[in-house]
Task: inverse folding
């Protein structure tokens, strides 16, 4: 199984998630600062996730959105401001999780065995 991670190498949580999923199998690393996701990719990630769209934004930053913002507003903002994308985001082709905290990776079937029940 191949996993994809939207990764930022300066983020400790992102490095931890990458290390864990590399121990499981094949990983495609996407540096979202260099290769930001498109509107379509963001929409797909959000729709396959159990997280509300607002969780895809780092709200601890000074941004013009809040918890009541629509998915379209969030996507449009992230396309223009990829540095505000929450990290790390892990995608196994079926399930998408924001691995913050790292324990969220248990929702990815290939990762679930690496966390206590």
Result:
């Amino acid at each position: 199984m191949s996993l994809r991670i939207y990764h930022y190498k300066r983020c400790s949580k992102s490095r931890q998630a990458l290390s864990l999923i590399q121990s499981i199998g094949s990983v495609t690393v996407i540096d979202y600062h260099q290769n930001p996701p498109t509107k379509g990719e963001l929409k797909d990630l959000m729709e396959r996730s159990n997280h509300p769209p607002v969780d895809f934004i780092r709200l601890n930053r000074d941004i013009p959105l809040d918890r009541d913002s629509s998915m379209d507003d969030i996507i449009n903002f992230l396309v223009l401001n990829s540095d505000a994308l929450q990290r790390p985001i892990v995608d196994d082709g079926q399930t998408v999780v924001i691995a913050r905290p790292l324990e969220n990776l248990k929702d990815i079937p290939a990762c679930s065995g690496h966390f206590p029940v």
Observations:
- The chain has a mean pLDDT of 91.
